[in-house]
Amino acid sequence: MAKKIKIGCVLDEKALHTVTLDPEKCKGCVTCMKRCPTEAIRVRNGKASVAYERCIGCGECVRLCRHHAKLPSHDPWDTINDFKYKIALPPPSLYGQFNNLEDINVVLNGLLQIGFDEVFEVGEAAEYITDATREIMKEGLIKRPIISTACPAVVELIMMKYHDLAEQLLFTLAPVDAAAKLARERAVAKGIPEKDIGVYFISPCPAKVFALKMGLGVNKPYVDRVLSVSDVYMRLVPAMDKLTEIKPLAKMSSTGLNWGISRGEANSTEELKTIAADGIEQCVKILEALEDGGLQDIRFIELNACISGCVGGVMNVENAFVARSRLHYLTSKLRGEPNTMADIGKDKEYFLWEQNPTKKDVFKLDSNRLLAMNKLIEIENIMGTLPLADCGLCGAPSCRAFAEDVVNGVLPKGTKCPRLGEYENGGAK
After folding, report:
1. E-only strand ranges, 340-385
2. What CATH number has the domain spanning 369-428?
3. Domain ranges in the chain?
4. Terminus-to-terminus CA distance in the chain, angstroms?
5. pLDDT band at 421, cuts 50/70/90?
6. DSSP characters for 67-86?
């Protein structure tokens, strides 16, 4: 029997869901359904449901649900006791959560106070990825414009809907994977048994939870547990207030810290012709323009599903724009040159994908081409009789999605359109 998934945390990776639904709080409104970029949500029998094979973990449904019925999945705090030696991976966006923060070392020391044995800044790893990216761009190894792969929600979206753009993806590890890989190696080099090491990422969004659990671009996940920023924040604040000594633990420069906000990565490439878009709707527009053959004068594209970048993740506690402002301030206080691969004796091969992400055919009507064509014709016939108002009253995000549900058997033939009547055998009755 499969383990039950507890709301708000991940217990079984085989049944990993990016978000969970609290049915008692769900009011059956269509807000989340209308804004889902992959039409993964339906509202039937007065409750929302998610087709997880279509979910990219962008967190838009969590952000928009005013009833707080959608909850992002993550590991609970008590999993910190699962390992003897615990390494925290704080993301750049974490530092934007704290008011009046003058020194990021306060946060890093606070993490040691709440139970971690070591910290490794994801921002430091981001600087190695920046260095590798510049080399890749100079060598012309990827078709331009190159698309950043730092946001796993965007990568998932491309693997689902924009297959032709996969060859333009930057094939470097995500900074968090690079950080986890390096942190584990350093701990082993200190003589710590590998079985005792637990690597914990503090995540701002559910997309990163899913990517790290499933191993996006890697042969095997490097991160053991993924905590939420909000859980860690509640423990960090009192611990930071009680610090009596601030050790200089920070190693990243302003380049790494800037990865926490939109355009941080694009600027780090030092290319002049770049685009940085944030918010899932804007990302979709850029991808559609690329698919149509546009933007060919651009060399690098940074896309973030969350508004303002990772500071806009739904597992954060602070308003995205406030957090962004704080990161801008903190970057002005960081001095020193960015970390490079040469500093740690690595080359770009160390920071490349170990395997390519898999393309997903979740929108295919049928694996049989003839049956798929027949279904398409049936869908078009139904569409010809619908009002094309995309009102959502039927529980689908659009009239076309409703027609697809009828044709695919998600809804039985004879299901009524709330405005026009019944459908049977592909036509109006």
Report:
1. none
2. 1.10.15.40
3. 13-72, 77-351, 369-428
4. 44
5. low
6. T--EEE----GGGGGG-SEE
Sheet architecture: strand order including 85-89: 118-119, 85-89, 197-203, 225-228
User: Distance between CA 216 and CA 158 in Å, rounded?
Assistant: 13
CA angle 118, 123, 128 (to 5 degrees): 105
d(CA 157, CA 289): 15
Q: What is this structure's pTM?
A: 0.91
Give Cα separations from 258 to 106, 185, 231, 287 (angstroms).
Answer: 18, 26, 23, 24
CA–centroid distance for 236 within its chain: 23
Whether 376 and 420 have beta carbons less than 8 Å apart is answered as no
Does the 13-72 domain belong in CATH 3.40.50.620? Answer: no
Band of the pLDDT at 1, cuts 50, 70, 90?
very low
Residue 165: helix, strand or coil by DSSP?
Answer: helix
Q: Could you read off the pLDDT of 214-237 as tens digits, one per residue?
A: 999 999 999 999 999 999 999 999
- How big is the CA angle at 248 (ends 190 and 196), to the nearest 5 degrees? 30
Structure tokens at 288: 């559609």
Q: How far is residue 248's CA from residue 4's CA, in Å, rounded to a whole number?
A: 43
CB atoms near residue 83 (< 10 Å): 17
Span 302-325, pLDDT tens digits: 999 999 999 999 999 999 999 999
Residue 308 gets the label, from left (phi > 0), alpha (psi -120 to 50) or beta, of left
CA–CA dist 51, 49 (Å, integer): 7
Per-residue model confidence as pLDDT tens digits over 4-56: 333 333 434 434 678 888 999 999 999 999 999 999 999 998 999 999 999 99
Q: What is the helix (H) or strand (E) element at residue 209, kind and residue range?
A: helix 206-214
Beta strands 427-428; 146-147: pairing state: unpaired
